[in-house]
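anyone else get weird line breaks when pasting these?? whatever heres mine. first is seq + tokens for prot A
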Amino acid sequence: MFGVKDTMLEEAKKLFGDGNKSNKSSSNEYLSNDPKSLAKQTDLARKLREEPFRYEKLSWKACFPKLVDTSVQKLMKKRGISFAVNSIYKCLYWDKTDGKLIGVIAFGSDCEGPPGAVHGGAIATALDEVFAWGGIRHFGFSGVTLSLNINYHKFIPLRKSMVGVEIEIEKVEGRKVFMKGKVFNLDNSDIVHNTATALFYKANPLMPSFEEAIKVFGANSNATKEQVLQLFAKPSSSKGNNSTNGASSSSSGEDVEPYSSFKTSKL
């Protein structure tokens, strides 16, 4: 039925009951509504933190602290923070030895879908962001999702909503990177909740690679805030376009791609 695995259907029957039994799931079964603290306390997260020579932390704050500034975010057309920041926490690392992404995802209690289980859409959101970090680590900025396919094998219970995640790069074709991944049980990695594949595309080839971005926006960069803002400024119009929204046009009258003048050599 609709491509759903038989094992998933059996789980759904048990979860929703047969109509004669009451569902015992309740909000007091949730471990916490603080997914960040939950994820950091897991054995896997602890292991990743304790081996910095092998595992590299992946987050905007860890990798690109100079881009966290709100004024920089606004220039990049960001209107706020990611909607998934407070309800879905991702503790992600890059395995420099095996060349893959590994980490922990924790879901808050407001991510409930079926009674006592994580919503499938919340899982999809988390996986999309994790795959995006796989793209960032491979080709840098301006990656966009072209496809995301997810198989749901086993419900993630909210009362123990921390799961492991692994992402591997399968192949690269030009500006396209093909990846696969899985979401697994932290107590028993043989229990797989989800498998997924994704295709990401580097939309703007002029944007920096991961290594270039680390040099310019990382903790050891000497770039000032003004220099960072200038890097993301749109090119001036050859016709002297003075539009209030900062948009510029080429001599042919066509819109110029945002950030097309990005050059780390300006620093």
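and prot B, same format (seq, then tokens)
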Amino acid sequence: MVVLSLEGNKLIGTLPDAWQNMTDLALTYLDLGDKMLSGSLPQAWSDMTSLAYISLAQNLLDMSSNALSELSYKLLPDSLEVLRLSKNKLAGAFPDASMLPANLTILGLANNLLTGSLPVAMPIKLAVLNATHNHMDGTVPAAWDVPLAEARLGSNKFVGKLPASWSRYGRNTSNSF
């Protein structure tokens, strides 16, 4: 199986323990969005080296069994390019770049309970970041030199100046604060 898409169904509960065994599948696309799923990510997902897309948006995930800014993101394979976790109950600090998959290009963390400031560094391949409607504060780090095509950070409590480096990204970018 290469694609598993179950979005929009009425599945409830935690991700089954048996899903630890999904590493033998050549799964590249996993969409479990718009459910009532809760809990955290199976540890074995880090071994799913073909996985490029995960959507767990619009669930009740809190990842309480693993610290959001540490272990839970280490459970994601480096092959992952798209991670959609918007509209869950994720709390804690925004993940540090070292915790995120190396190939990540799209990160959706909107409508959660994230707090604190943004990390100084972001994954070098990141093109789209949506972290609107959280409880983050502080400034957008001046050192951010990632050529984001889209940065959505509105409905937080950010202050200060935008990074000067963003001026060189031109017309193909979209920033929303």
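btw re prot B: The chain has a mean pLDDT of 83. The chain has one helix and 15 strands.
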